[in-house]
């Protein structure tokens, strides 16, 4: 089969087209003909940092985690899938799991689900990693109807899904962005936009919560921005973040009694730990999407499998809106 390989990691790492052996289905897995995949920030980190990250596969490596496609073969012990089923998931591209920048993947059946019926393959491929992340963060924060939820980075991959899911669960949603396009997308998704470049945290907390703070802050920016999340959160509030690889003074969180939830959705893939939970979340997300509660935003530029390098560059440029998708 055709695949795009990384032979050496680094800032100047390039993808190389190659013919590789088509994988064979095995017990508990399914063979999927990939129609589309998408690029996530962690994919670009692996390409550049390689062995500096404990989750990087050995080279030559097939990167890519998200996919949507059609089942070609079903392994022993798999009950939920048949040949011809349209599926989506996040199942490779790290550690010993070959990735999705190829024509086919053998995916653990616990890391996938049936594709939302009304979504295209490209739309479905955009969802798994970011949607599982957003869903897990909101669930761990105990989201409830009527709460005020702040999403930092609402025009990004995780953020634009978190807005939609929070609205689906009945929350009143607010979100930060830093440009006209970003703010327009946030409004289109149904959240109240906040320009973090022109409004201080104190200003928008006063404006939207009368100074009380937000019940939940979903911080898809993280790092130093967590300090802003602590400031924006209500007393005994919940903060969920996807980026916490930093040193930070937790004193503000202490005096507010905040709960901090660190979401690292790759744990089931890396450690073969409760992978079935990802399948369950993906099934729930498909139902939400089919009910009209979740539609991914795709970047206006599309890429072929041979253009995987350009797709990575598009994501890294910061010029894209929504998810960068590759048509395999």
TrEMBL record:
Domain Enoyl reductase (ER): 10-326
Protein name according to UniProt: Zinc-type alcohol dehydrogenase-like protein
GO terms of molecular function: oxidoreductase activity; RNA binding; zinc ion binding
InterPro entries tied to this protein: ADH-like_N, ER, GroES-like_sf, NAD(P)-bd_dom_sf, Quin_OxRdtase/zeta-crystal_CS, Zinc-ADH_QOR/CCCR
Keywords noted in UniProt: Cytoplasm, NADP, RNA-binding
Source species of the chain: Symmachiella dynata
UniProt main location, coarse: cytoplasm
GO cellular component, one term: cytoplasm
Lineage of origin: Bacteria, Pseudomonadati, Planctomycetota, Planctomycetia, Planctomycetales
UniProt KW Cytoplasm keyword: yes
Subunit structure: Homotetramer.
Cellular localisation: Cytoplasm
